[in-house]
Amino acid sequence: MTNSYILCFILLCLIGGQGLVKGVKGLACNWGTQSTHPLQPNIVVQLLKDNGFNKVKLFEADPGALKALGRSGIQVMVGIPNDLLAPLASSPQAAINWVQQNVSNYVSKYGVDIRYVAVGNEPFLKTYKDMYLQTTFPALKNIQAALIKAGLAKKVKVTVPLNADVYQSDSGLPSGGNFRSDIHDLMISMIKFLSDNDSPLTINIYPFLSLNADPNFPKDFAFFNGTAAPVVDGSIPYTNVFEANFDTLISALEKNGFSTMPVIIGEVGWPTDGDPSANAQYAQRFNQGLLDRIFQGQGTPRRKTPPDVYLFSLIDEDDKSTLPGNFEKHWGIFYFDGAIKYQLNMANGKSLVPAKGVRYLAKQWCVMSPDASITDPNLASSISYACSYTDCTSLGYGSSCSRLDARQNASYAFNMYYQTMDQRKGSCSFNNLSVVTNLNPSQGTCRFEIMIDLGKHETAPRSSLAGKIQTSTMGLIVVLLLIIYGAF
Questions:
Q1: Quick one: pLDDT at residue 348?
Q2: In a domain? residue 341
Q3: Predicted local confidence at residue 107, as pLDDT
Q4: Which residues contact 463 (CB under 8 A, 6 or more apart)?
Q5: Do 325 and 376 share a domain, yes or no?
Q6: What UniProt keywords apply to this chain's record, in alphabetical order (predicted)?
């Protein structure tokens, strides 16, 4: 690669959306809960244990998840959402209250093994346009003070999960790493505070986004077993973007006097749907390579001791935002219901184990009626309506259901709405265009879902306004697909 291209790939890999430490056996992962039909927390905890995960990161202090994790033997990192940073920054008492309610309470009452509090989630991301620059560090200090006051600071450490775009390399090589000039002083102050309190720095790294952002990115460089030409930095050859990215951070820490600063990889993984590069084959290849590194205790050229690595993610989340892409809903190594997407070789020759005890709605699907015509003037609006309340991202270009014909596209949209609405009476009524069937319409890579039975059929599903706006865009995409197929 030329130096200019090396610079390009390093910059791309820095833009983004437990591992086996010496003497510690186990794995870590993220457990997100933004689902219209979430698995019962106790089922998720058993899923974690069955697959060897002994560390988990939660994005917020979800009561059900925390209670289920009590006395489970699983270590917990509990997150504080960005929208709480301002009140926590402005009020030490608010921080004391948060720690009491979300840490002390679960530690003492339920025996939850909380080890970290993650203050914010990628708060310095460039796309946030400095929204959290003034509140993150004060909130961090107030939470630390609250942990001290609660007598928990020796066991529970603070950290701030940051996107890899907080550092960069002007030379295009890992050795040129330093923190972004606009936040350099803030980063140094915050890292010093973490270091003084024996707390780690947490960084999220996404090789998928590097590949996804640039059609000219050398594909094999995103994986651990690729054949792309190495990037040579002095005497060090880098054969994958993960190591190059991580060592750019290590160089930044070394330049600023923190050569021994502990680092956690808070998120790293590969999605399986919503984009041509998001598929099960690539996800299996990447995650298996990642797991093999973890099992072997492999570090990077600039830091031989491997970091804790939290795989992103355990299960899919159909209620997540589609920013920065439709793949956001599909990061799980398991589907939303704990079913296995693809097999992985785990430690000691074990394979993945699916979730146990999942209860589903009836085995029936809502599809386009055989008597309905794809030229019906109500079809387009019906599909758009269905996709405005549910997840139609699998219908996008290059996604798992992108090869469906016009009728099947409509059926997929109708069924997702029907299932999201818990198969309630009237939820398969689309201007006489749809009908309920007992024949599974799934085909190839496209799954026509049946949702988890929540036992609350009278309750409307949770959908944010933002989610409706984003998914309605998918409805328009489906309509365009129908136009391409000649339906209109």
A1: 83
A2: yes
A3: 98
A4: 36, 319, 389
A5: no
A6: Disulfide bond, Glycosidase, Hydrolase, Signal
* Nearest residue to 315 via CA among 299, 339, 348: 339
- What's the confidence (pLDDT) of residue 12? 45
Cβ distance 463 to 36 under 8 Å? yes
Please report whether residue 359 resides in a domain. Answer: no
Q: Give me 451's structure tokens.
A: 């949702």
Whether residue 356 is contained in a domain is answered as no
On the CB side of 279, CA atoms within 13 Å amount to: 13
Q: Are 412 and 306 members of one domain?
A: no
For residue 364, what are its two tokens?
Answer: 């029936």
Cα–Cα distance measured from residue 35 to residue 313, given in angstroms and rounded to the nearest whole number: 13
The rounded distance, in Å, linking the Cα atoms of 176 and 205 is: 18
pLDDT score for 2: 43
Residue with tokens 């080890």: 115
DSSP string, 395-424: GSTTSTTTT--HHHHHHHHHHHHHHHTTT-
pLDDT at position 475 is: 56
As to burial, measured by CB atoms within 10 angstroms (0-12 exposed, 13-18 middle, 19+ buried), residue 13 is: buried
Alpha-carbon distance 129 to 474, whole Å? 27
By annotation, the residues acting in catalysis are: 122, 267
Last residue of a domain, one of 287, 318, 349: 349
- The pLDDT value recorded for residue 359 is 97
Which CATH number belongs to the domain containing residue 175 in this structure? Answer: 3.20.20.80
Q: Looking at residue 230, what is its pLDDT? A: 95
Is 358 a member of any domain?
no
Instruction: Give dist(CA 313, CA 109) in Å, integer.
Output: 28
Same domain as 374, residue 340: no
pLDDT of 215 reads 87
Same domain as 369, residue 337: no
pLDDT at 356: 98
Count: domains in the chain: 2
280 and 389 both lie in a single domain: no
Which spans in 232-391 are helix H? Answer: 241-255, 280-296, 379-388
Please name which of 276, 285, 417 lies closest in space to residue 342, comparing C-alpha atoms: 285
* Same-domain pairing of 146 and 26: yes
Q: Are residues 142 and 250 located together in one domain of the fold?
A: yes
- Pairing type for strands 27-31 and 53-58 reads parallel
The enclosing H or E element of 66 equals: helix 63-69
Question: Do residues 428 and 307 both lie within one domain?
Answer: no
Tell me if 8 sits within 8 A of 16, measured CB to CB.
no
List the domain range (segments joined by +) for residue 168. Answer: 3-349
Given 321, 349, 377, which residue is the final one in a domain? 349
The low-confidence residues of the chain, meaning pLDDT below 50, are 1-24, 457-472, 482-488
Q: Are strands 308-311 and 231-233 parallel, antiparallel or unpaired?
A: unpaired
Q: CB burial class (10 A; 0-12, 13-18, 19+) of residue 348?
A: exposed
